[in-house]
Specification:
single chain, alpha/beta, 8-stranded mixed barrel, 30% strand, disordered N terminus, CBD-like_Golvesin-Xly, DUF1906 domain-containing protein
């Protein structure tokens, strides 16, 4: 979701350099007698032979199964894509690429009603349809499935490449039974579709992540069992997507939601007219509004094909742009068309953008009747704090009542259950119910360890002013021990409701790496473990909890931990949400 720009329009001029990929210096299947036009090269796979510009890279996925299949660089990929966990999280935009894989049960599952099937004895399917800026051809004579990604600017060149295809003497047709089964799958209308377990992301408060390509089932299982995340962003539509999505099927959606994952469906298509990314929306507001409606219809079709039902929110990803008055008008008009058409189709509208461009523009027009409000706002502000604060970019009074997502860190590598993925970190507070009612009366209180009547601790807790990251004059500390001796922060809660609880502590390498914080909720004590060796000197959200009205101990810092180093009690902030 971030930095890579779409490539130039002239395909022949494209340059490439994919780090860490397996390259074929010359097409291994091309015969010396094959004549290639100047500036071109023949690439062959399973008897399917196609001519591409000489500058294109070739990646053998059998030799390099972990390679990221990415469409922002002109490349031919040979073989089945792997689990795609190595894809960078920040890819945006596409140029052109081909994926040529064997026609078998794996690839047959990716066929769609738009997949063209060649006639026997030919490698070309004339008039093949493009869907979401990709053309898919099942070449029965060679037993391969070809997916050709493109942009509006590169579509003609990609079609010329597909039109150059020939069958070699080593071509072996796909099994009739496989093609028959695949055709039945593509044309079946009576079967009940697979479906997500309710609207997505639904009603959810907590952490999530997004990444360029939907991970494999085994990766999702490993992260479900060990990570703090329960929501994942998935790119379902849009011609600006950089990554192949070999894992993203209706079956994948059903499996994840049945396992408790919440999905954040993303459309990555047209970008701001004043920006550098392609393709762009029109600078004319009326045309941009129409383009937004078209994007909504495409996104709904993709959502329905994946079993993501009405009532779900779909988020339009508009990357950072150098805003001005006319560009802002175009973007907000585009989002108005997007929102109105999603509503007409029974879906909620969302938008992702950077705080300093799209979010600022949307929030500054919150009361502007010329534009239709979004339902959800996804704020990219990498401040490292897991909450839904919009900082200087969006007033706290806007998009309240469970209508916000916050991407608080980006381009990080995390490993859970032994599996590493490149991700962006998010915090969600969302609902399927969109209310324009004013938020409850705001209330916030900070309790320091020196607040009169607000803090209690035994004599085992010492006092220190050692760290400059402290809140207030000093803080309290104690050795870990296998006994109940917590320090408590006390506050008078005005009304039983939802409150965000945030903590402040100084970080130090000698402090505890697994400090338990106990939150006294209406449903009983809940424990949140915090590594006090990092992220000090700022408010760190423990989450949103239902707290009972009245005066009492609400947050405790426990000494009973398996970690090592001092446990620290400094300050707690309570904020009604």
């Amino acid at each position: 979701m971030r930095k890579v720009l779409a490539g130039p329009a002239v395909l022949a001029a494209m340059s490439i350099a994919v780090a860490g990929s397996s390259l074929a210096a010359a097409a291994a299947w091309a015969k010396p007698a094959d004549a290639v036009a100047e500036g071109g090269r023949i690439v062959g796979y399973h008897g399917y032979r196609v001519t591409v510009p000489a500058s294109w890279q070739v990646v053998d996925l059998t030799a390099d199964p972990q390679a990221c299949v990415r469409f922002d660089r002109p490349t031919v990929y040979l073989g089945h894509p792997g689990d795609q966990s190595a894809c960078p999280a920040d890819l945006v935009g596409r140029t052109a690429a081909l994926v040529i894989e064997p026609m078998d049960a794996v690839s047959a599952a990716r066929l769609t009603p738009q997949t063209a099937v060649t006639a026997p004895g030919t490698a070309v399917a004339a008039g093949a349809a493009s869907r979401d800026d990709a053309i898919q051809v099942a070449v029965r004579g060679a037993g391969v499935l070809v997916t050709a990604a493109h942009t509006p600017d590169t579509e003609d060149a990609v079609r010329r490449i597909l039109g150059s295809a020939k069958l070699g003497r080593d071509a072996r047709p796909a099994a009739d039974s496989l093609l028959t089964t695949a055709a039945s799958t593509r044309t079946a209308t009576g079967a009940a579709p697979l479906a997500a377990a309710g609207p997505q992301p639904g009603v959810y408060t907590g952490k999530g992540f997004d990444t360029c390509a939907a991970p494999s089932q085994s990766t999702m299982n490993a992260w479900r069992n060990s990570s703090p995340y329960r929501a994942i962003g998935i790119y379902i539509s849009g011609g600006s997507r950089s990554c192949s999505q070999p894992n993203l099927t209706a079956n994948w959606v059903t499996n994840q939601t049945n396992n408790g994952w919440r999905l954040i469906p993303i459309e990555l298509g047209r970008q701001a007219p004043c920006g550098t990314r392609l393709p762009k929306m029109s600078a004319d507001p009326a045309t941009a509004r129409s383009q937004g409606a078209t994007a909504a219809n495409s996104a709904v079709s993709a959502a329905q094909a994946l079993g993501i039902p009405a009532g779900s929110a779909i988020y339009n990803d508009i990357e950072h742009y150098p805003s001005n008055a006319s560009c802002k008008d175009a973007v907000l008009s585009y989002l108005s068309g997007w929102t109105l058409q999603l509503h007409a189709r029974g879906y909620l509208s969302g938008m992702y953008s950077s705080g300093s461009s799209g979010i600022t523009d949307v929030c500054s027009a919150y009361h502007d009747s010329r534009y239709t409000r979004l339902d959800h706002l996804w704020i990219a502000w990498w401040n490292g704090v897991a909450d839904t604060d919009g900082g200087p970019y969006c007033d706290d009074a806007f998009y309240t009542n469970h209508r916000r997502l916050h991407q608080y860190a980006g381009e990080v590598q995390e490993t859970w259950g032994g599996v590493q993925i490149n991700i962006d970190r998010n915090y969600l507070d969302v609902s399927t119910t969109v209310s324009e009612e004013p938020p409850p009366t705001s209330w916030s209180a900070v309790v320091d360890n020196t607040t009169a009547g607000g803090f209690t601790a035994s004599a085992n807790w010492g006092t220190s002013a050692f760290s400059a990251q402290r809140y207030g004059a000093d803080y309290r500390f104690a050795d870990p021990v296998a006994a109940s001796d917590p320090a408590w922060f006390r506050v008078n809660i005005p009304q039983t409701a939802s409150y965000e609880v945030a903590i402040w502590y100084p970080a130090n390498a000698g402090y505890n790496n697994a400090t338990p914080f106990i939150v006294a909720t209406t449903g009983g004590n809940q424990s949140v473990t915090v590594d006090q060796r990092v992220n000090g000197g700022q408010w760190i959200s423990l989450g949103v909890f239902t707290l009972a009205a009245g005066d009492g101990d609400k947050v405790g810092v426990s000494r009973w931990t398996t970690g090592t180093g001092y446990v620290v009690a400094d300050a707690v902030r309570f904020t009604r949400v």
